[in-house]
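We read letters as residues; the fold follows as tokens. A sample entry reads:
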Amino acid sequence: MHCWQTFIASNWVALAAGKKIWINVRHSDHPRFSPFFKANTGWPVGQQCDFTASYRDGSRVHVQCFGSERGLLRLLVHRDQFDPDQGAINLFLHGLLETPAGPMLALVALVGGLRASMRL
């Protein structure tokens, strides 16, 4: 049986450095069967499901499910530095810095700030 806590602990340095790790696990080791994870949503990049585990440091481990390959589940595991489920500031920082929408959000904030300052 796959132990998620052991996998995350042994790969924490890589995950904390921003690495994305592809793994193949048995269907019985799907993160939905782990009390450590909860179902969640993520930016749509072709995955079939998302599961996350929150940490006290404000981060989370995010597992994206990409179907089966040779009878095993193909999963992509990464760490989000800012867990959007841990408050408004984390939600904002996650959206700005860790999603494809981040550059667009920054541009909207910049334009909005410029327009506001021009009115003064």
Helices lie at 4-10, 12-16, 88-97, 102-119.
